[in-house]
Specification:
The structure is a homodimer. By secondary structure, chain A is mostly helical. Helices cover 63% and strands 6% of the residues of chain A. The first copy, chain A, is flat, with a radius of gyration of 21 Å. Chain A binds a DNA duplex through helix 2 and helix 3.
Chain lengths: 198, 198
Amino acid sequence: MLELAILGLLKQQPMHGYQLSRELGGSLGGFWRVSYGSLYPTLRRLEREGLVARVSDGPSGGRRKTVYGITEQGEVAFLELLQETPADTSSEDARFRVRLAFFRYLPPETRIRLLERRRGFLADRLDAIDDSLRSEREAADDYALAVMEHGRTATESDIEWLDGLITNERAKTERRGLERGGARTHRTAVLSRKEHTS
Amino acid sequence: MLELAILGLLKQQPMHGYQLSRELGGSLGGFWRVSYGSLYPTLRRLEREGLVARVSDGPSGGRRKTVYGITEQGEVAFLELLQETPADTSSEDARFRVRLAFFRYLPPETRIRLLERRRGFLADRLDAIDDSLRSEREAADDYALAVMEHGRTATESDIEWLDGLITNERAKTERRGLERGGARTHRTAVLSRKEHTS
DNA sequence: CTGTACATATATCGGACCGATATATGCGGT
DNA sequence: ACCGCATATATCGGTCCGATATATGTACAG
């Protein structure tokens, strides 16, 4: 996730570590505050791997400031990271937010594909919550129940939000099609439970 | 967080590791799937620290099954963990869900205090998002903007949900007061930005 | 009865990211 | 001249993760 965020920001313009942390704090402020304990080691690792490169060092005397820029290799890796489904589902929500923030770098079809994959993920979560609600409705106390029910509501409204984004993206694609003179129609199944893995 | 969850579940009844993982998967299913790589080492650590104790081991031959129960010490630690504000703000949302699921073990006043602390946390997040929106409204593209705006909406609706829980809890407290013959009124400030740390 | 697929149960591994903290330098105010 | 704060980089121990290994019980098809 951090790797994706770093490459995405450096793609816009070269920066040093501290600057990266402020940029991230800005756009994802309330949701993800990157730790220096992750940032600087990761930057060095990315340099070692050739995905970023030093653009300028600070002066030999006085305050140092290591500015990094993205490399050709880094650009490739960035686009891969942007599309991949990572193993770590624990911080999947945060990861999706980061991915979405860089969606402008993806072609419309890929955007729709990723939005639908996310929709499938949330649909699965909704089913899992419903299963729990069915089986534990009686046993659970007020607060444990409130947790589940709020989770359900929040997930549902997230799905609706995603549907809006998908509709919007399709509309844009459609318009682009018309402008080119073609009146092609689109048939793309909206994935539901368990289908998004196929 | 895991420590809190384990102690809370063992407080209800003794269990072995695998059983704990299923229980957790049930109530917080879509949001937190505990990893064995955390669970078993943590169980052993808690045993070492005397917060849990083996209730029964499996047979010497055949399949083993190590059932743990909570100790007196563990009960104390549990109530502390339930109320403490941990350093880790990164997974604060998940942590609050876990805490809330065990709210029945706290007295009403403490519940209200924790709900208001959470409210303050979310109010701060909302302010952070608003700051970002103000300063980056122009620069940001559609999707980066959508991330922030959706974050804002979701945070707002979380706050409203919390307000409902707080109102509810106060009403219950009030009723209890009346039943005891006293008609005491409550004056408790709802914390807003930056005040929750004081 | 025998295979065999699946749930149960415990354990270990490397890795990602965290918060706290240390250590400097530059800068605005007093 | 001094202080406090933002800037800038670095390292530490710790939590939790997913993948994987290794068994045992159990249901069920051939």
